[in-house]
Structure formats: C-alpha cells, structure tokens
Amino acid sequence: MNYEIVIGLEVHAELSTKTKVFCSCTNEFGGLPNTHCCPGCIGMPGTLPILNKSVVEYAIRAGLATNCEISKYTKFDRKNYFYPDLPRAYQISQYNLPICTDGFIEIEVEGIKKKVGIERIHIEEDAGKLVHDQWDEGSLVDYNRSGVPLVEIVTRPDMRSAEEARIFLENLKSILQFTEVSDCKMQEGSLRADVNVSVMPKGSEQFGVRTEMKNLNSFRAIIRAIEAEAQRQIDEIESGGSIYRETRRWDDSKGVSYTMRSKEEAQDYRYFPEADIPPVIIDEEWIEDIRQSLPELPEARKNRYIQEYGIPSYDAGLITSSKVLSEFFEEACSKSTNVKAISNWIMGDLLRILKERNMEVEDIPFSPEYLAKMVELIDKGTI
C-alpha cells in the first residue's frame, strides 16, 4: 500500500524586542547564568506581569507578513504544567483568543506553488533553561531565558513531504528576519520547530494518528526526523501494530526517536484566563500604522530582483532567503554596473566558500564594496 505523509508545524520564534514580555529585564542571548532576570520573571510571590507593548506590535507584524487576520480583541491565559524551568508552574500564553488567525505562506516545490495555512499565531513567554551536569548527574536552571517573548506559529496539516516542510520553514524564517520580528538563529534557540507527523493511505481523506517530534535543532534534523518517523509509522502499521498519539524526542546523531510521553490535550493544561493582564484591544488605526511600517517582504524583493536586475528566479530566491545576503547583494550592486557578475559570484564561489568553512552568511569576510571592485577589475582585464 502507498502512504502519504501529513505534516503540521508548531514554530516558536523569540522576538527581537529589547526587553522581556512581562518585565523590563534585558532580552539578550548569553550572559552569565541568572543575570538577566528579576523577581517578576522568576515568579516570586507578589510580583505582577506588565505587558510589553512592543511584543504586541511584533506579533501583529508577524501576522500581517503571513497574511493573517489580526484579532481586534485578544487576551492572555495561564497554561498550567510543572517543570523545573517554569518558576510559576504555569506559562502565560494565549488559548482561545490568539492575536492572529487564518493566514498562509506560499511555497514553491518543483515549480508548483501551494499555500500552507497558518491556523494561529499567539504570544507566550519562554521558560528557563535546564543545564544538565554529566559529572554529578544533577541539573541546574538558568532563568535568563524565562520571560523572553515568543510567538508560536501553528500551521494547518497542509504539508505532504519533508521538502515542503523545509521550504515552508525557510520562507517563514526569511519573513521573520526581513520584518525584524526575530533573528531566527536556530543555534541560539531563537527559532525552534516541533513537527507533527502522521501517515494515511494515498488518496484517503482520513488523517492518521499523529506524533509530535521534538529536539529538532536544524533544518537537516527536521527533514531526517520527518522521514524517519513516517517510515516508522508505516512499518508499524504494515506489521499490524498501532500508532499512539505521543511526543517523541529525536536523536539526530543516531537517526532515531524515542518516546518521551503521551501527547497532552488542551484540557491537560487546565487553561484559564490570566487575571493579572487585562484584555488587549487592537483598533484598525494601530494595525494600519504597523502595516505601513512593514519593509519589502522576501517574495516581493525576489520578484523585483528578477525584473530589475534580470537574474534567474532561482538565484533571486536564494539571495532573498537571507536578509543579510540580500542586503549584501544590493549594496554590491549599487557599486557595480555588472549585476549579473555580482549574482554569479555570490551564487557560486561565495556560498561555496561559506559552506566549505562552515560559516554563516553574517560571517562573510569581505565587504560588498570589495566584491564590486573585484568584479570591476575583472571586467577591465586587470585581474
């Protein structure tokens, strides 16, 4: 029997605000443990949350950039669960009235375009971070991350392959970077994705039982985890077994996943309204002000590069997949008359060297002016 994979994503993006979501502590990666926290973000009795207005605006920016409807009335809720890195034993999140709903991002796979639906975007606070000590078999908690503002972007189960999921995540990452909602540095944990995977007979309209995959720290890990989990489920079904709704932890070094726990339902978290934060009223004027402040989005910039510079669609798409690379390209083009050569050098040698040296685009070791000057000297036959 042939099977079809069904994939949905839950993406957490840390917002690039200067301060945390419910207090004035610095929202900054790194630092000595427990130095970017206060009585409020570690849940001391008597402290009250104060909503950061910028967090609401960043969430609206994310919603507008992903074609969402912005809720005119939204509220916060308490999500109750116990874990050592959650000091209050509840997380301030949003349940039934999220700030953004019913959006989509368009992806293109093998020349075919499709829309991946976004069910909701909601605001929540991040938890602390557990640091495990392998020598004394104990764990320590760093609360610097506690209270860092997040948006959780929940897709509809519209993706049918690991490649579609990868392309969606790359498009989402570039949108969040271009709008400066998040820096999306997966290596620092500012972009994290949980993947829901199920399989069903090809042509069926009845989804199978889904599992949630966690501990996915790179796009490569996400692709491998989806493919491995889909195959595990198919093998289990073919052998007469059953698939259970559970959360599984992915071990990328071994290429396998392990059961963590049965998958929680919403009622397991005992959501109820956050009484210490009043509902947020968002009027049309506020939304329009934010809409007018949005920069050129990646898809629009890609189309402009194709028309204005005459470069191939693939090249334009790859360049606009990164805000840093796109700005580097534009700056180099402003200093050169040979735009095609600039594009070729970036698409060829530059990206190859970065990959060989395991470097990020942010680490390009020369300036756009340097590249433009080199192209000019080559055109003149000097080098």
Q: How much β-strand is present in the residues?
A: 25-35%
What Rg, in angstroms, do the CA atoms define?
23 Å
Give a short account of the largest sheet: 9 strands, mixed
**Measured distance between first and last alpha carbons:** 60 Å
- Specify the oligomeric state: single chain
3D shape: globular
Structural class by secondary-structure content: alpha+beta
Write down the secondary-structure element order. Answer: EHEEEEEEEEEHEEHEEEEHHHHHH
Strand order across the largest sheet: 2-6-7-10-1-11-12-13-14
Average of the residue pLDDT scores: 93
Unreliable segments of 5+ consecutive residues? none
The DSSP helix count reads 9
Helix % is 25-40%
Return the domain count. Answer: 2
Compute the number of strand runs.
16
What does this molecule look like?
This protein is 32% helix and 25% strand. With 383 residues, it is an alpha+beta fold. The chain has 2 domains: 3-287, no CATH class; 296-380, no CATH class. Strands 2-6-7-10-1-11-12-13-14 form a 9-stranded mixed β-sheet. A 3-stranded antiparallel β-sheet has the order 5-4-15, with no helix packed on it. Helix 2 packs antiparallel against helix 3. It is globular. It starts with a strand and ends with a helix. The model has no long low-confidence stretch (mean pLDDT 93).
